Amino acid sequence: MKVRLAKSEELQTIVDWTAQQYPEAMDGFGKNTLIPVAENGELRMAMPVQAVFFIWGMPANPANQHRDNVLALVNLLDGVVRLAKHTEVKNIYFVATTKEIEEQAEHFGFEKVEQTIYRRKV
Description:
Elements: E1 2-5, H1 11-21, E2 33-34, E3 36-39, E4 43-46, E5 49-50, E6 53-55, H2 66-86, E7 92-94, H3 99-105
Parallel strand pairs: 6-7
Antiparallel strand pairs: 1-3, 2-5, 3-4
């Protein structure tokens, strides 16, 4: 099998396959989407990959009052959302490490992802 980037004339086929097999994932392919494909004379599979933002952590000044942390969080999230929109990143992820964070996530516009996430370090 040969792996290469999708050709423009293959994009509609790939969009159709994606919509049929992963309808919940069809929020569109942005400019930051790369689509490697496998083919052996015929298109066999595509693997659309998109850049996402992953919030690694939120280290705060230990001297902060609770109000300072809340205000900083609100402003940082607003800035990250604006940056994501500007760069056409469609998803922002983070791992909730406490029950308190889980309870506040929806308040800040996040939805719980009901899927197991795997990572491969490169």
